[in-house]
Amino acid sequence: MTATPSRALTVAVLGTTQTLSWGSSYYLPAILAAPIAAEFGISRAMVFGIFSSALLLTAVLGPAAGRAIDTRGGRDVLAVSNLVFAAGLALMGLAPGPLVFGLAWAVMGVAMAMGLYDAAFAALAALYGKEARNSITGITLIAGFASTVGWPMTALMEAEWGWRGACFGWAALQLLLGLPLNRLLIPRVPPPAKAAASAANGNGPAPRLADMALLAFVLATAGFSASALGAHLPGVLQATGATAAAAVAAGALLGPAQVGARILEFGFLRRISPLVSARIAAAAHPVAVAVLLAGGAPMAAVFVLIHGAGNGMLTITRGTLPLALFGPVGYGRRQGLITAPARAAQALAPFGFGLLVDAHGAQALWLTAGLGMMAVAALFLLRMKGRGE
To answer: What positions does the domain Major facilitator superfamily (MFS) profile occupy (predicted)?
Structure first.
């Protein structure tokens, strides 16, 4: 009889495979867009446009991926995602031109729907039910270093083997590391009969549609702001008067701020309601914008720290708040529905926010600050079932 892996091991495995999957997909274009564009004779903007299209496909497929996890459990779906990631990366490495390159990113869009945070959160919800909060926080702590690990690894492989070799290298890691970890070390726990029947019928427990809509809006605003600032942070800081060096130095604080906030969530904040935690997190960005626009360039580092902390906590909220509000039954499909607008917002934000920054400089932050305040208001309209938060 095979022993069931401990919860700590499961979290470590999922954190590792999430780091691998984020590093070989979401964080890939930042390093490879330039050499790919140069070889194909297209603009970097077109490369990122193809990538954005893949993110939109991920948003569309999210509910189906979540339903598959509800029905089959997280282990099988995550293991298949490693195979699909490997296929997409191999096809990318073989692409003779933009058309096949775009097809490769369509395959990657399928893989991202099956294999990134929402799928991992659903797997944990199926395993641990409402007790999954700390486990969700744990994998975001580990995978919070995906860019820290992924960007240098991609750059190293590209320098040694070219951009095609980098794609093949990541494909090999998906097969040799991600697949056995997900397939062999994640417990196979069939969903409860009620959850399986609900998933098979295409619905979970009677959803509170207004609450689902409010939460979808909150996550969409968070996704838009995170993606917009992720793409344009140095430029926005320079628009306040910061030098290029100061903007880069301040921007480097983003990752540590996110991880630091997740450590805080794992420790002190786990004692408070996920809804209260979400309200604090959503309020962080508007506060950060007010500080930056009032104080200008000298407040750049403070802005990044506050914004980064809120963004780090909101990543956890994306997994824990739906679980707390609606429970684990039908979590995967419902998570796919709730986060679909957020995925779409993340895909569209770099382009749309970039136009605003070009036209209005740092004043473009009033948009993200306004969205943040609307998210806070939406969170105050939500109530935990049977509690007064």
So the answer is: 10-387
Integer Cα distance of 117 and 19 in angstroms = 10
Residues 6+ apart with CB under 8 A from 33: 44, 47, 48, 51
H helix runs in 187-242, sequence order:
193-200, 209-239
**Cα gap 186→208, rounded to integer Å:** 31
List C-alpha distances in Å: 43 to 39, 72, 98, 346, 353. Answer: 10, 42, 11, 21, 19
Tens digits of per-residue pLDDT, 337-377?
A: 999 999 899 888 888 888 898 899 999 999 999 999 999 99
Q: Could you tell me what percent of the chain has a pLDDT over 70?
A: 92
- Of the candidate CATH numbers 3.40.190.10, 1.20.1250.20, 1.10.3210.10, 3.90.70.10, the domain formed by 7-200 belongs to 1.20.1250.20
Distance CA 388, CA 143 (A): 33
pLDDT (tens digit per residue) in 4-14 = 668 889 999 99
The per-residue pLDDT for 196 is 46
